[in-house]
Structures are given as C-alpha cells and as structure tokens.
Design brief:
single chain; 314 residues; alpha/beta; Rossmann fold; six-stranded mixed β-sheet; two-stranded antiparallel ribbon; 10 strands; binds Fe4 H S5; binds zinc ion
Length: 314
C-alpha cells in the first residue's frame, strides 16, 4: 500500500478517494479538506473569532486542532452535561488538549450553573435525554458565543454524522429540518453563525487524525446514545458505503447542490415571529424560551422528589 502523493509506505486507505496516504500526506489531506470547506461555504475569515464546541471526542478535538493548525483564532467551549463518569472523563480530555496546546477552553457546567443534569433533568422534564441535551447545548453554545463576542460557533459534525441525519430526516420527510441541514447557518438576531467544517471528512479519518497527531480523546460513546435512531441510520449507511464507497459523500453533497434550496423556501418565514424570552433574553417563540422552560421543569420536579425521599427516610 503506497501513498498516492509520495509513493512512500501508506498508513491509511481512504476508499472514498480511492487512495492511500502516508501519515504526512493524510494529515495534509485533512487540513486541505477542512480549508476547502471553510472557503467553499464562506464559513469564516482570518479575522473572525471562532468558538469550537468541544465534547472531548475525536471530532471536536480534531476540529479544534485543525483550525489552530490553519492559523485561526479559535477557543473551545466544553459543556458539562452531568452524565456521570462519561462527563468527567470527556471534560478531562478537553482540558488536557487545551493545556497541551496552550489554547483557551471556556467551561459551562449544567449541574452547578443550572441545577440539573441530563439524565435526571430529562426525566423530570419528560423529554428523551438527547432532546433535552440538544436543546441545552444549542442554547448554551449560542449564549456563550454572543456573551464572549465570538463571530461563529463551529461544531465537529463529520460526513458520517451529516449523512446519517440527512438519511433520517429524508426517511420521515422532516422538511423543516431538511431546510436547515446546511454546513453554514447564518447569524440572526440572538443567534451566532454556525458552521460544520468537517463535513468532507469521515469518522474513521477523524479517529486516524487524532492518533497520528497524538490527541487523546474519549473513545466510549455517551451512555445515553444507546439504541437511538441516529446510530441505526449510521449503521445502515455504513453497509451501503462498504459496497459503494463515496455514497455518503454523494448523498450529502448532492443534497446540498440539488435539493436543500427546495426545502428552504417554505421555511424561511418560520423564524420571523420570534420574540424575546422574558427570563433570559434569548429569542423565543413564546414568552419563555424552550430552554428556560426545560430548566424550570428539570429543577422544579427534582426538588420535591429529593425532599420526599428525605422525609420518608426520616
Ligand atoms: S451527548 Fe447528549 Fe449526545 Fe449523549 S445525551 Fe444524546 S445528545 S448522545 S451527541
Ligand atoms: Zn506521502
Ligand atoms: Zn429563556
């Protein structure tokens, strides 16, 4: 197996590109593909301040590293979700990366700052964990970016993630989600710009990138993810990709080129009726935003349960 670029010994095959690469040229491929996407979709420029949403996993740490390597002004934001040992370990990975690179990591901890964690808060609010988690993340990333004067929030969604989400949304024809499944969402009042610079790179490549760059990342999956539909969509696409390399890329980039704009038309006006949340000031579709309602339910229901338990014990 020889590197396509230098003919030296290759360390990885990328079937989607029908090519093998040595370590040096694989890392260059990752940087080039990231730079290409940033340019192609006008994600941000050299003067923009970028905030990377860091989970401690391979994708977000690889993204942070790639953006630093490409010379961007980029800080990280880690959100403590209170998911037991998983959150403890993922936080450690994010901190270790920041320390090793001399980079700035902002942290927000849900249990200490908002009084709930994802496992118990989602139960109390009667939402599935990933829905409560997604809502919390969106709100707190937006808030941190606006408070900190960042121009853009970057997330580590890779090609496998985006193809799987697209697959799921297309299977059920969720047109409002299809309209918004773009690698760039422009800023709107109360919302920062959001970008996904890894959409030309796959999950396996991101793991290889971290190994080759000596980046320690959390390998275990979030325990709340077990059995969710997204994993099933990923597995289904992996089977197809195995037989026809390049399918995920063609599916996702074909959607962007030929289909996404058709869904956008019907949903452009959805966002115009937003008011301001009376509690936190974020954009909201009613008097109180969805996040503040989640916090209220997640904390209010948790209190009496704890008191009842104590009362029973006493
Ligand atoms: S962290 Fe949160 Fe994910 Fe865990 S609870 Fe679900 S959404 S699976 S990316
Ligand atoms: Zn090479
Ligand atoms: Zn609010």
């Amino acid at each position: 197996m020889k590197c396509r670029v230098c003919r030296g010994p290759a360390v990885i095959d990328v079937r989607r590109h029908n090519a093998n690469f040595c370590a040096e040229h694989f890392l260059r491929l990752c940087r080039d593909q990231t730079a290409k996407v940033i340019d192609e979709f006008a994600m941000f420029g050299p003067d923009d301040r970028v905030l990377v949403a860091v989970s401690g996993g391979k994708d977000s740490l690889a993204l942070w590293d790639l953006l630093l390597e490409l010379g961007y002004a980029v800080d990280g934001l880690y959100l403590g979700l209170g998911i037991g040992g998983y959150s403890d370990r993922s936080g450690e990975m994010a901190r270790a990366f920041a320390t090793a690179r001399g980079a700035t990591l902002l942290e927000v901890d849900l249990p200490t700052e908002y009084g709930y964690d994802i496992p118990s808060g989602s139960r109390a609010a009667r939402r599935v964990p990933c829905s409560a988690c997604g809502l919390s993340k969106r709100h707190l990333f937006d808030k941190a970016a606006l408070d900190g004067g960042y121009d853009v929030v970057a997330t580590g969604h890779n090609l496998d993630d985006e193809a799987a989400v697209l697959f799921g949304n297309a299977l059920t024809w969720k047109t409002e989600y299809l309209a918004r499944q773009l690698p760039v969402l422009p800023a709107r009042p109360g919302f920062p710009r959001k970008v996904k610079p890894l959409v030309r790179l796959g999950e396996r490549e991101m793991a290889a990138y971290c190994v080759l760059r000596g980046i320690d990342y959390i390998v275990e999956e979030c325990p709340m993810a077990a059995g969710n539909k997204h994993l099933g969509y990923k597995e289904a696409l992996n089977l197809i990709e195995e037989r026809s390399p390049g399918t995920k890329r063609d599916f996702y980039f074909g959607f962007l080129a030929r289909a996404a704009s058709r869904f956008a038309e019907g949903h452009a006006e959805d966002q115009q009726d937003l008011t301001t949340c009376e509690r936190c000031g974020a954009p909201a579709s009613s008097e109180v935003c969805a996040f503040c309602r989640l916090v209220e339910k997640a904390t209010r229901t948790a209190e009496p349960v704890a008191i009842t338990r104590k009362a029973q014990a006493g």
